[in-house]
């Protein structure tokens, strides 16, 4: 086994561990979100006021942050400085859309 093969195996192992950690964190965030939603919806009246703009803004921030984080990781980050303005603009657009839709629907 050559030095190149060892280096490839080390890199593959690092990528596998990073993907496994990301998957575990994603599952934990999903479980925490499900717990939060079930606790919030427990004995709720379906005709109550619902979420306000403040609560919707908090949820929208989390959803937008996760969406942008997933897209940044998936893009590979080749030209991180060139992508930064588009990433920030995308985050703000996602935030506003999710914020208003969550406040309107829930």
Characterization of the model:
The chain is mostly helical. The longest helix has 38 residues, at 3-40. The protein has helices at residues 3-40, 53-75, 80-105. The chain has two domains: 1-48; 49-106, no CATH class. The model has no long low-confidence stretch (mean pLDDT 78). It is 82% helix and 0% strand. It contains three helices and no strands. The chain crosses the membrane at residues 12-36, 56-74, 86-105. Keywords: Membrane, Transmembrane, Transmembrane helix.
Radius of gyration: 19 Å
**Strand fraction:** under 5%
Element-level helix/strand string: HHH
Number of strands: 0
Summed over residues and divided by their number, the pLDDT gives a mean of: 78
Structural class: mainly alpha
What characteristic shape results from the CA principal axes? elongated
How many DSSP H or I helices? 3
Total domain modules: 2
Tags for this entry?
106 residues; mainly alpha; 2 domains
Write a short abstract of this structure.
The protein is an all-alpha fold and 106 residues long. The protein folds into two domains: 1-48; 49-106, no CATH class. The chain is 82% helix and 0% strand.
């Amino acid at each position: 086994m050559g030095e190149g093969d060892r280096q490839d195996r080390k890199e593959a192992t690092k990528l596998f561990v990073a993907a496994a950690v990301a998957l575990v964190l994603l599952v934990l965030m999903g479980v925490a979100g499900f717990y939060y939603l079930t606790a919030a919806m427990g004995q709720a009246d379906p005709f109550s006021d619902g979420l306000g703009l403040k609560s919707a803004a908090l949820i929208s921030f989390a959803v937008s942050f996760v969406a942008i984080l997933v897209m940044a990781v998936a893009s590979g980050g080749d030209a991180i400085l060139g992508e930064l303005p588009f990433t920030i603009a995308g985050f703000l657009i996602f935030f506003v859309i999710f914020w208003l839709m969550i406040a309107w629907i829930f």
